[in-house]
What does this fold into?
Amino acid sequence: MLKNKKLNRALSILGMVIAIAIAYSVLVFLNKDESKVQKTSANAETSERELMYDDLGDFIASNHTYYNETLGWGRDRKVKWPKQRKQAELIVNSLKKISAENKDLQHDLDTILSLAETVQSGTKEKDVLIKLHRYFHDLDIGFNDYKDTTDYFDVTEYKGEG
It folds into this structure.
């Protein structure tokens, strides 16, 4: 009789542990799904926000970072053209709302617009992407005082103030 009580108690405890483990697993699984949904909606919101830059410096830095991540350090060997066309579209749409008072800087923005329109049109010329990257790179140095590299391609008219 005493053995049965101990066995029943042990089985009850084991059952509770299993039930808790299952409940925990279900919660973890549901949180992962919820997090995916949140990330998806966050990505959609990011795409909308990418069109709205508070200032020219943010626009330059953001695109420089994008091209570093998608073309820099040998990544230009495997270009994902649909992704590049989407970025070009963001650049084109953003430049409809962004301008510069400095004529050299505006000239560079006009060149960037032209290059982005070329990519957006469906061309698959890597040289155009590399030029876009170099424009954003040099402008990030000249306009934002970017100091993470000593490389300078000297493609821009704008060389910075001062």
Observations:
- The longest helix spans residues 2-50.
- The chain has a mean pLDDT of 83.
- Residues 110 and 139 are 13 Å apart (CA to CA).
